[in-house]
Write a structure and sequence with these properties.
Layout (H helix, E strand, L loop, with lengths): L8 H29 L4 H13 L2 H8 L3 H10 L3 H26 L1 E7 L2 E8 L2 H11 L1 H4 L27
Antiparallel strand pairs: 1-2
Length: 169
């Protein structure tokens, strides 16, 4: 009989999560850097870079020492800035999606308190996040709304019959 190696599932999960984050974020980071190279405005570059790490336009503007109004003006006036902000938003979305998946599927460790002291840890999952993830991945099966169509995807034909005209007794 062949030897069977027991593999820790937690370790595999962590490696997969790290690999996914690294692959996605590296590709987006390279695209953001290329986009920023086309922006000819130093403060705009600072705002886009800060936004990619903090996730808030207001905080990114504050970090760069400009008003949020400048950001909105640059979206219209500075070539390449809108693309850089869009790529930064994609990076943030990837981070958020990864965290959503981690909490919904893999769970997270939380402290267990007793008598005012931490006595252990337990793993918690988020049913609500899992539900949202399923709706996003397969809306036809998990959406709250269902679309009803008639023949060949056309409109549903409805007719009403007045019971007095039905010829009953």
């Amino acid at each position: 009989m062949a030897d069977v190696e027991i593999v820790d599932a937690t370790e595999i999960r962590e490696q997969l999560q790290e690999w996914d984050r690294d692959q996605d974020s590296q590709a987006l980071e390279n695209a953001l850097k290329a986009s920023l190279a086309r922006v000819d405005h130093s403060r705009a570059i600072q705002v886009a870079s800060a936004y990619a790490t903090c996730g808030s336009i207001r905080a990114a503007c504050e970090a760069a020492g400009v008003s949020p109004a400048s950001h909105y003006r640059w979206l219209r006036e500075v070539e390449g800035y809108e693309e850089a902000i869009t790529l930064a938003r994609e990076m943030l979305l990837g981070i958020a999606e990864g965290e959503l998946f981690r909490r919904a599927v893999w769970g997270r460790e939380v402290d267990v308190w007793y008598g005012g002291e931490v006595v252990g840890q337990k793993r918690e999952w988020s049913d609500r996040l899992l539900e949202r993830l399923l709706k996003a991945l397969d809306p036809d099966r998990y959406s709250d709304r269902k679309q009803i169509t008639g023949a060949d995807g056309g409109p549903v034909e409805i007719s009403f019959v007045d019971p007095r005209d039905a010829g009953g007794s």
